[in-house]
Amino acid sequence: MPGVRHEREFALACWRCRGAFREHINMLARLGVDAVEVRLAEQLPELDGLIIPGGESTSMGLVAERWGLVKPLRNWFIPADRPGAPAPA
Asked: 21 near 28, Cβ under 8 Å?
């Protein structure tokens, strides 16, 4: 919004699991948005938004499991302090 100042930049990322993550990053850059590629759970807490490129969901789930991202992604999307959030495992 014009005239609105933010305390910090909006941190946007694209999950680099598979699919067209590079195309998403390139399009964001053309729009003037700085975005980073995410592969590690440690990167999630600093993000305000996450793009998950389309792809075959079973394969994406397998990649998330292999990289140890299932629980961190779930926790990022549904913070523990939100009503109705699943109990920590």
From this structure: no
